[in-house]
């Protein structure tokens, strides 16, 4: 038992060192955007593909690819491997509805907590959800309870503040204490709007970090809409699936 525990710790430490070395090197932000565009064109890119396309080492390619794309069955492993990564920022923010909590949500939370020491989570209110015409969404308290359970399970609860979100921008748009906002590639525009609002109010812009796209078993992005429709389950598996699809 001791040897197994020591092995896991060693693996997490090595991953943290590799992650911090690669992501905090000059030029990584630009590289990440290039790899993201490549993934959008070909979601099934491999580490070997990325290394060859961008003239990277295997280690650099691994981190670059996992920073922008995870398969549904890689998310929990990524969370475990990220435990030793030291956050760069003091206070971060994310926002969302977190309906039908799924692996994409978990990847977003992981990106947030490896970026910031403390994280404010803006959870959309029932009124805000209704104003946007969304239907079939679980009530606020049900979503909050499920979210709290996930945060406690993964050891993030003590670093979290959950607040009601009833507009598109939330507290980071007007609170100078935030220094990073975390979104997905699909919500980048809203993150940029937060910074535009801060600048208008005389506050400096804050860093923007993006979580990886999470692909379901069929190679398409996992979403609450797909879970609600019954296409996939919250783990990203196709209905009736017996195991991961060939990649």
Tell me about this structure:
By secondary structure, the chain is an alpha/beta fold. The protein has two domains: 2-76, no CATH class; 89-210, HUPs (Rossmann fold, 3-Layer(aba) Sandwich). 45% of the residues lie in helices and 15% in strands. The chain contains ten helices and seven strands. It has helices at residues 2-23, 28-41, 47-54, 58-68, 75-81, 103-113, 126-131, 140-153, 188-200, 224-229; strands at 69-71, 89-96, 116-124, 160-165, 180-183, 207-210, 213-215. A five-stranded parallel sheet has the order 4-3-2-5-6, with helices on both faces. It has a two-stranded parallel ribbon with strand order 1-7. Strand 2, helix 6 and strand 3 form a beta-alpha-beta unit. Helix 2 (28-41) crosses helix 4 and helix 3 crosses helix 4. The longest helix has 22 residues, at 2-23. The protein is globular. The protein starts with a helix and ends in an 18-residue tail after the last helix. The model has no long low-confidence stretch (mean pLDDT 93).
